[in-house]
Amino acid sequence: MIVIAKHFFYKSYVGLCLWPFIILKDDQLKYDVVLINHERIHLEQQKELLIIPFYFIYLTEWILKSLFYLNTYKAYQNISFEREAYAHEWNLDYPSSRKSFGFIKYLWAN
């Protein structure tokens, strides 16, 4: 389910996934198949972790990596969930074919 919330986003962020919604900054973004696929990957991640643990792990990973990199954006880019989603966002079949807990291999890999 896609929701448009123009004033919800910080700086250059244009979309996010809060189960069961994909929230976008602009109505035209719903036609961006790569962005929608990226967010669909997050829906799968959230579903397999039963939603609340996903957010806990995501936030914990972001905090730890922010301390490690001393840069919040670099920390965001290196969250395992984001790394998996960015790595496969162009593969439109990935959300339905991904292996469970596919994000784990992105925890420590460069």
Sheet-strand content, in percent, reads 5-15%
The radius of gyration is 14 Å
Largest sheet: 3 strands, mixed
Secondary structure class reads: mainly alpha
Please characterize this protein's 3D structure.
This protein starts with a strand and ends in a 13-residue tail after the last helix. By secondary structure, it is mainly α. β2 (15-18) and β3 form a beta hairpin. The model has no long low-confidence stretch (mean pLDDT 94). It has helices at residues 33-48, 52-69, 72-77, 80-88, 94-97; strands spanning 2-4, 15-18, 21-24.
Key structural traits:
3 strands, 5 helices, single chain, 110 residues
Summarize the structure.
The chain has 110 residues and is mostly helical. It has five helices and three strands; from the N terminus they run βββααααα.
Describe how the helices and strands are arranged.
Layout: E1 2-4, E2 15-18, E3 21-24, H1 33-48, H2 52-69, H3 72-77, H4 80-88, H5 94-97
Parallel strand pairs: 1-3
Antiparallel strand pairs: 2-3
Helix pairs in contact: 1-4
